Amino acid sequence: xxxxxxxxxxxxxxxxxxxxxxxxxxxxxxxxxxxxxxxxxxxxxxxxxxxxxxxxxxxxxxxxxxxxxxxxxxxxxxxxxxxxxxxxxxxxxxxxxxxxxxxxxxxxxxxxxxxxxxxxxxxxxxxxxxxxxxxxxxxxxxxxxxxxxxxxxxxxxxxxxxxxxxxxxxxxxxxxxxxxxxxxxxxxxxxxxxxxxxxxxxxxxxxxxxxxxxxxxxxxxxxxxxxxxxxxxxxxxxxxxxxxxxxxxxxxxxxxxxxxxxxxxxxxxxxxxxxxxxxxxxxxxxxxxxxxxxxxxxxxxxxxxxxxxxxxxxxxxxxxxxxxxxxxxxxxxxxxxxxxxxxxxxxxxxxxxxxxxxxxxxxxxxxxxxxxxxxxxxxxxxxxxxxxxxxxxxxxxxxxxxxxxxxxxxxxxxxxxxxxxxxxxxxxxxxxxxxxxxxxxxxxxxxxxxxxxxxxxxxxxxxxxxxxxxxxxxxxxxxxxxxxxxxxxxxxxxxxxxxxxxxxxxxxxxxxxxxxxxxxxxxxxxxxxxxxxxxxxxxxxxxxxxxxxxxxxxxxxxxxxxxxxxxxxxxxxxxxxxxxxxxxxxxxxxxxxxxxxxxxxxxxxxxxxxxxxxxxxxxxxxxxxxxxxxxxxxxxxxxxxxxxxxxxxxxxxxxxxxxxxxxxxxxxxxxxxxxxxxxxxxxxxxxxxxxxxxxxxxxxxxxxxxxxxxxxx
Length: 713
Hints:
Pathway: Lipid metabolism; fatty acid beta-oxidation
Number of helices: 30
Strand order of the largest sheet: 13-12-11-14-15-16-17-18
Enzyme class: lyase
Structural class: alpha/beta
CATH architecture of the largest domain: Alpha-Beta Complex
Strand content: 5-15%
CATH class of the largest domain: Alpha Beta
Helix content: 40-55%
EC number: 4.2.1.17
Number of domains: 3
Protein name: enoyl-CoA hydratase
Distance between the termini: 41 Å
Largest sheet: 8 strands, mixed
GO molecular function, one term: delta(3)-delta(2)-enoyl-CoA isomerase activity
C-alpha cells in the first residue's frame, strides 16, 4: 500500500503501475475539503515513490466523481478571502496530478462532473466506459470550473468546443466526447480498468508519447490572434443571446479563457481563480447554489416518504383523456407503469393517444428512443370507454374538467368500481381536496396530485394532503410521482394549494396595472426581460387559458374573499366574456397563428386595447415589478406561516419547477432575502393603499426585527 486515506487509497497493481482509487465512505465520490487534502497527500506520496512507471485513476463506486461538495459552498463563499485561498490551493492539487513524472490515465465510469471531469482533464489519457457522463456543469450553479477546467479543456479540445461546453454546462455521452477529443477511448464497463492499464503501460514503454500529450496543457493556447479574436467574439455573442444579462457565469467563463489564452498554465489558472472568486460573491451564484441545496432537500424528503409506502403502484388509471390526461398517461407508461386511459368520449381518447404518440415521436426524431421502444410505451396505454377496465388498478388519477360537481360525481363513481385498496387522486389545480373528499366514503385513500402542463416537460407534482388523507396514501403517491420522474412536494389543502394560490395574487397585481391603463405588452417585457420570467403575466394567462383563469378567480375569491375578491368587471372577466380564451382559441391578450414558415406566432391585438380601455399609461420597470411581485411574495409567506408548505426551500423549488420562477433569483424566499426583509417591508408598505395583497404579515415583521432568515439551516 502506497497510501491509505478515508476516501482515497493508492497501491501498486502491476509492475511499477499504481492505482489511485477514489473510495469515499458515502454513496458517491466528491471533492470536499478533506478529500482534496487526501488527494494532495496521495499525489505527493506518488511523486516520491521509487520505481513508479504509471498511474491510473479509478473509482470504487458505480460512478467516478460527481464534483465538489456543494454543501460546503455557501459557508465557504461567505468569506471572500477564505474563498481565494481555498480555490488557489485546491486548483493546484490538480497541477500535482498533471505534474507526476509518469504517464497517467483516468478510468471513468458513470458521472465525471465538475471536479471529477477536471481530475480526468489533468490526466494524460482519459478512458471511459459506455455508462460515462462527462462535463463541466458549474454554470448551472452560477460558477465556472475552479480546478483548472477553463485552462485545460480549451487546450485539449480547442477553444470553440470548450467554450460551448463550459458556457452551456452540457454533459457529454461517450461517443460525443470521443468525437471532440475529450476522451481517448470508449470501452465496455467490464473492460474499463484493463483498457486504462493497457494505455498507461503502452505510454510507460514508450509506445505512446505521453509527454507530447501533456505539453499543450502547460503552454499558451496554440492559435493565432485572428483565430482567437473570431472565436471569442462568436462565443460572447452566443452567451449574450442564450444566457443574457442575468447569468454572469457564462460571460465570466469566456473572459477567463480569453485572459488565459496567451499564457502558460500558472497565469491561465490565476485568471480562472480570479473569475471564480468574483462569481462566488454574486446574487446569481448564491441563488443557484441555493436551488441545488433546496432541490436536494426536496428529493431527500420525497425519498424518505417513498420508503414509508407499504405498496408499490404497478398499474394506474387516468380518468379524462385529452391533452392533460394523455400527458399523464404517457408519463406513467414511459416510466414503466402501465396505464388505463378512461373517458366517456372516443374523440377524447383519440386525442389522448395522439398526444402520447406525438411526444414519443419527437423522442424518436431526436434519437433518444427507437420505434420498438415507442411501440412498447404506446401498447402499455389502454384507451377505453368502459368503467370495468379500471378494476384492479393500484391508483386512479382523476383528470376531468375543473368543476367541483363533475369531479365529485366521477370520484364517487370510481370508488364503487375500483378495489378497496386502490388509491384515488384528483389532478385538480385549485379545488379544495377536503371539499372533493366529501364525495367519498373512505377519504383516507384520497389526495390531490396536481400535474403541470405540459406534463412531460414540467418537473413538479404537488401532492395535496387532505384533512383525512392517510400517511400511507401520501407515501404511495409520492413514490408514484417519483417513479414517474417528477419532483414531488407535499402541501396541505387550501384553495389553489401552493403554486396556484401564490400565482393569483401575482396575476391580480398585473390586472391592477392593466386596469390603470398600463400596456400589458410593456408589463410582459418588463417581467420577462428585467425580472426574468420565461413569459410575462399576459402571455402566461393566455397559455393557461383565460376561461380557466376566470374560473379560478371564483375559487380563490371563495377561499380568500378579502384578499382575492373577484372583479366581475376586471381584465380577465372582460376577456372571458368576449370569448377571448387565450391560445386555445387563438385569441386572448394576444392573437395567435402561424408565421410564413408554419411556426406558432404571437401577434399584437389592437382590439384588446379598446376592450380593456388601455390608455398606455407609462410606469417605471421597478414599479411594475413591485406591483406584481409583492403580492406573490406576501402570499408565499402566508403559506409558510399557515403550514401549507413545510419550508421556504420547498416553496422556492415549487415555484421554480411549477411556474418557471427565474433561477438566477432562486425562488420567492431567496428573492425576498436578496432584497432584504427590512427593505421589502418598506417597499410593500409604500403600496399598502392598494389593498390587502400588499400588506405584509406580522410574522414577516417579527422575522425582520429579530434579524432571522427564512433560509437558515
